[in-house]
Amino acid sequence: MTFEDLLAEAEAEPVEGWDFSWFDGRATEERPSWGYARLLADRMSQARAGLDLQTGGGEVLAEIPSPPSTLVAAETWPPNAAIAAANLRHLGGRVVLVTEGGGLPFAGGTFDLVTSRHPTALPWPEIARVLAPGGTFLAQCVGHGSNRELSEAMMGSLPPARERATAEASAAAGLTVVDAREEWTRVEFFDIGAVAYFLRKVFWTVPDFTIARYRARLAALDQRIRAEGWFVAHSRRYLIEARKPA
């Protein structure tokens, strides 16, 4: 396909939800060794009441085989919330629309499990508040510096990344970290359409990205991919599990 055709295809694809099946055969991302989906399924099967924050379209949560008796997902973007409601219906899950940076509309101590996969930010005081005594928080997060190679291919040289002080923030909220791990995973893009769509969907990689605005940079990267066969970046992932004192 031509450069123009690939960009047109990437521009036309909807960005709602958190389904990445469109990338099949066009991009790959190595998964962290701890297996977040497996951990999520295990923790949810043992929970009485579970809350998933920033659930996106609920795609990962929808795969758990044994949901708790109370299952709630919170999402900030209305189009995603609608997709999540459909994806979680078979589990009896309820989706609640919340405000970015606002409080959670639940009474204190409501959930014995709170989870999140790739949140943009973690509201630690609210997480601690809605957790029941002895409750668990489990999250897989995207570390600062993720896909830096791609960010710099679009924006030029960037200053060193500053990592979130996750353990300190959880401790300040009154939670005890019981597991913390970090890995760098390999990300491969095989055509410029996959790059353009990724940047539209994972918008924090290049915050002001539009295909029109970055057309020249995309053209240069397109030539590189055609010459080398791919473009490689690396994503920083970390896992954190914390508990509220009983």
From TrEMBL:
Coiled coil region boundaries: none
InterPro entries reported in the protein's UniProt record: 23S_rRNA_MeTrnsfrase_RlmA (IPR052939), Methyltransf_11 (IPR013216), SAM-dependent_MTases_sf (IPR029063)
Superkingdom classification of source: Bacteria
Keyword Transmembrane helix set for record: no
Any one GO molecular-function label of the UniProt entry: S-adenosylmethionine-dependent methyltransferase activity
Annotated Methyltransferase type domain residues: 51-138
Keywords recorded for this protein, A-Z: Methyltransferase, Transferase
Tagged with keyword Transferase: yes
GO biological process terms on file: methylation
Pfam annotation, one family: Methyltransf_11
Protein name as annotated: Methyltransferase domain-containing protein
